[in-house]
Specification:
By secondary structure, this protein is mostly helical. It has 17 helices and 2 strands. Strands 1-2 form a two-stranded antiparallel ribbon. The protein is flat, with a radius of gyration of 31 Å. The chain starts with a helix and ends with a helix.
């Protein structure tokens, strides 16, 4: 059964349970709501929650566990001779899943019969050609072990989906029956529903925490696997970035220092543009601009935040880069050889970050109590003195937070760097040379031709973990500075 229709069935059971539970509660009170402990709607919601919540929890857990179980079971039936020396069982399983998905799509489109897709003795060449004719992605000729594993994968996946549908529907009906039996006048439905809503809210709040934990664990495990294949000392102290895709890594030099330098260099240039412009514009909009000017200028400034980063990248490549070359290139000062450079990416990234700094700083400055302004004016201070000595110190913790958000956005930017800064990993102080960042190399390493079990692919997780630790350190340091200042200010 398709997942959409399964969800619709559960919601239909919950909706029917709501009306039946409400009517049963009213009937038990003789139609007089005064004899009920709670409002009739609470009895209906009690039935609906007990029908939907356990069913959806089972559905989510089943969808998370089933792929791991099927992958582990099917992987055991793949012979060791199928796994090449420079590959891994994970790559073979990826080919199995791709083949199984291609068979399912071909059957759904009618280009292949269900019996042919399930035939263990089907001609391999014929199967491969039919999949290609159906527009399915097949990297090479499907081998017999891969086909057998894909067919087994399809059977297990279909069987698991069937049992999942049955279990979810039965649990929804059982929950609805349980709530329906409780719908009588003496049942404390309001207390039960409120406790259930509280549990749902706690679960929703926990999703962010669990997601963060999952991201960190995925980085940690793959980073550990990388450092088993490549020395950690060479990674953190190496001055050369030259990955090799020969064999199991060949003579790769995977030093992270050039990438970190490029990341921070471009981010510093971007912040040097965004922070003054954004902060000054926030001060003008909040303290000097008339309501009419503010109503027009602030939305226009915030439009910059909605422009896709790929557009900024193209702007850097086609406009800013050639403009800088015409000024600082061979026809000008002779400092710049090409349009892709740190200065190109930094300037465009700074333009992109202006609304982050400006909008947040503007909201923070406006949040400063008007009484502080009036007190400053009452002591004879001018508007500029009030801004410098009263408003900005009071808003400084929030302004630091806005700058930190802009810095995190700059460190994690990819497309502007790829199109505007180039791909050269080097240590240089010249802002008119091409460089690259950690995020750009993460993308390039995961989209290369290397085996996923090789250092060249696993290094992307080590780069991500390094960037995560550095960003976390910056956040902790900024929080410490803000708290120390806040103590002195208070």
């Amino acid at each position: 059964m398709p997942l959409f229709w399964l969800i619709m069935i559960v919601l239909a059971v919950a909706a029917a349970g709501y009306f039946l539970g409400r009517q049963r509660a009213l009937a038990s009170a003789g139609g007089n709501t005064r004899h009920l402990h709670s409002l009739p709607s609470y009895y209906g919601w009690n039935v609906a929650m007990k029908a939907a919540v356990p069913a959806f929890l089972l559905l989510i857990v089943w969808l998370l566990v089933q792929p791991f179980y099927i992958n582990a079971t099917v992987a055991e039936m793949i012979p060791d001779r199928t796994v090449a020396d420079n590959a891994s069982r994970g790559l073979v399983m990826a080919e199995v899943r791709r083949t199984a998905e291609g068979l399912d799509n071909a059957v759904a489109e009618g280009t292949m019969t269900r019996d042919f897709a399930s035939d263990m003795r089907a001609d391999i060449t014929d199967v491969t050609q039919r999949l290609k004719d159906a527009g399915q992605i097949v990297t090479s000729t499907v081998t017999q072990p891969i086909l057998n594993a894909a067919q087994r994968y399809r059977v297990m996946n279909a069987t698991g989906t069937l049992w999942m549908s049955i279990a979810v529907i039965v649990l929804a009906l059982a929950g609805a029956y349980w709530g329906f039996r409780e719908a009588h006048s003496d049942f404390r439905a309001r207390n039960t529903v409120e406790q259930g809503i509280r549990a749902i809210l706690i679960g929703a709040a926990s999703i962010a925490i669990l997601t963060t934990v999952g991201i960190i664990l995925s980085l940690v495990f793959n980073t550990i696997e990388f450092f088993r294949l490549y020395p950690a000392w060479d990674f953190f102290t190496g001055l050369n970035w030259a990955p090799s895709f020969s064999g199991r890594g060949g003579s790769s030099d995977l030093g992270v220092l050039p990438l970190l330098w490029g990341t921070f260099y471009i981010s510093i240039v971007a912040l040097a543009v965004a922070v003054p412009v954004g902060l000054f514009s926030a001060v003008y909009l909040s303290e000097y601009a008339s309501p009419r000017v503010r109503s027009v200028a602030k939305p226009m400034l915030e439009v910059l935040a909605g422009i896709p980063t790929i557009v900024y990248g193209l702007f850097a490549l086609l406009t800013v880069g050639p403009l800088l070359v015409s000024v600082f290139g061979r026809d000008g000062l002779g400092w710049m050889q090409a349009g892709t450079a740190v200065m190109t990416a930094g300037l465009v990234m700074g333009i992109m970050l202006i609304p982050f700094v400006s909008s947040l700083s503007d909201d923070i400055i406006n949040a400063v109590p008007q009484a502080m302004r009036d007190g400053s004016y009452g002591l004879g201070a001018t508007r500029s003195e009030t801004i410098k000595q009263v408003i900005l110190p009071a808003a400084l913790p929030g302004i630091v937070g806005a700058i930190l958000l802009a810095a995190s956005r700059a460190i994690g930017e990819t497309m502007i760097v790829v199109l505007g800064a180039g791909a050269a990993a080097k240590l240089s102080l010249n802002p008119f040379e091409a460089m690259t960042t950690v995020t750009a190399k993460i993308v390039s390493q995961l989209t290369g031709d290397a085996d996923f079990a090789s250092p060249e692919a696993l290094v992307a997780f080590a780069l991500g973990m390094t960037l995560f630790v550095i960003t976390l350190g910056l956040n902790v340091f900024a929080l410490y500075i803000v708290r120390k200042y806040r103590e002195q200010y208070e």
